[in-house]
Design brief:
This protein is globular. A 4-stranded antiparallel β-sheet has the order 1-4-2-3, with helices on one face. Strand 2 and strand 3 form a beta hairpin. By secondary structure, it is α+β, with helices and mostly antiparallel strands.
Length: about 90
């Protein structure tokens, strides 16, 4: 299982617009990805309701994971998106 631990770069955390950006990127990755708070159970990263339900705050550590064979590059891209708190999806996602 591939895993990335990253601190959320969006000051408002994973709420509304940032969550939407993240969920679209997770869906676009084409692989199943899970997201969890550092001390919590994982949820489907492609589900807006599940991501919002985590209540992730800005600066909080999250864990991105996937059991897909080719997950390394996708998790790297998602981790960069979350850490940098980008305002929109980069073309490389």
């Amino acid at each position: 299982m591939a895993e990335r631990r990253v601190n959320v770069g969006w000051t408002e955390g994973l709420h509304a617009r940032p969550a939407s950006i993240f969920v679209r990127a997770a869906t676009a990755s084409g692989i199943p990805v899970s997201i969890a708070k550092a001390d919590g159970p994982p949820v489907n990263a492609a589900s807006m309701l599940a991501v919002l339900g985590l209540g992730v705050q800005g600066g909080e550590e999250i864990v991105l994971s996937s059991e897909a064979e080719d997950a390394e590059a996708a998790l790297d891209r998602l981790a960069k998106l979350v850490a940098e708190g980008l305002g929109e999806l980069p073309e490389t996602v």
